[in-house]
Design goal:
The longest helix is centred in the last third of the chain and has 18 residues. The chain has a six-stranded mixed β-sheet, with helices on both faces. It contains twelve helices and six strands. Strand 5 and strand 6 form a beta hairpin. It is globular and about 65 Å long. The structure holds uracil (URA).
Length: about 280
């Protein structure tokens, strides 16, 4: 039976394909199946495994170190199976970018993250290059991948409405994601993918120099603020990010618009957070 002869497909095949399409699968990436959930689970397990070598600060004192007042973005902590050469390469490259245009070109040439192979476009970021407020989401979805722009789909439209509600135009803010390529089938980016791209995201923030950073959703908080706390506990709190270049920026975790679209009752919390953002901008203007 020929695979190109659609009339000879068994009914179950076409039904299965239709079901995949309904589930959001739009790209075929390989001949053999890969269980990304199992890979991510194994990766998380390795990250959780206790290390036997104490870090210098722990070795010196038996009393627990006090919690830092601010949350600091350390240079990418590389998951054990991430390509360490790629991460080091990314850090070295990103640090050299003197402008957003240069950073974009570097990302376009960066081969250290496999997501670029399945994405249609690089989604670098948009909005004012010297914005007071910068939003960092998780990853481009289908609409963003097609357009090459972040937050243009339903989530983006909700973000625009929330901004308008506090009198801020979308073009006045800077918007980007923790990874600039769409993960296949809209899965979450793996920690290794996020870490590979993180130096570029941090440099993006440094080049924009926003007064306020908004980490949209839990992935963004984990990557930028190094926090494993749930987003529902973190949201609305004012934290601080220190970039590799030593810049301190006020940062607020926020519920992801995609979550708000699924749970409209939670919009009241987002409303509170946007009010807090508005107040903060007024205070520091
Ligand atoms: N969700 C995100 O996190 N980023 C986008 O750009 C679109 C949807």
């Amino acid at each position: 039976m020929s695979i190109t002869d659609a009339t000879t497909f068994p009914e179950e095949w076409t039904a299965l394909l239709a079901w995949y399409e309904l589930a959001g699968v739009s790209t075929f990436v390989g001949e053999t199946p890969r269980d990304r959930f199992a890979e991510t689970e194994a990766e998380a397990g390795r990250r959780r495994a206790p290390t036997t070598t104490p870090r210098p600060a722990e070795a010196k004192s038996s009393t627990p170190a006090p919690k830092p007042a601010t949350v600091v973005a350390r240079p990418a902590a590389i998951p054990p199976d991430a390509d360490a050469t790629s991460a080091a390469d990314a850090r070295a490259k990103a640090a050299q970018a003197a402008s957003l245009a240069e950073l974009r070109d570097m990302l376009a040439a960066f081969t250290g993250c496999g997501l670029r192979q399945t994405a249609k476009h690089l989604v670098f970021g948009n909005g004012a290059e010297d914005a007071d407020v910068m939003f960092v989401g998780e990853a481009p979805g289908r609409d963003e991948d097609l357009a090459g722009e972040p937050f243009v789909g339903k989530s983006g439209q909700l973000l625009n409405r929330m901004l308008a509600a506090i009198g801020i135009e979308r073009d006045a803010v800077r918007v980007t994601n923790t990874v600039p390529w769409r993960p296949p089938g809209n899965r979450a980016p793996t920690p290794a993918e996020t870490e590979a791209c993180l130096p570029f995201t941090l440099r993006h923030i440094e080049l924009v120099r926003p007064r306020v950073l908004v980490c949209v959703g839990s992935s963004s908080c984990r990557a930028l603020l190094r926090s494993d706390e749930g987003i529902t506990r973190l949201r609305g709190r004012w934290l601080s990010l220190t970039t590799p270049g030593g810049m301190d920026i006020a940062a607020m975790p926020m519920l992801h618009p995609a979550f708000l679209l699924r749970q409209p009752a939670q919009k009241r919390l987002a409303w509170r957070d946007f009010q807090s953002l508005r107040e903060r901008l007024g205070e520091t203007a």
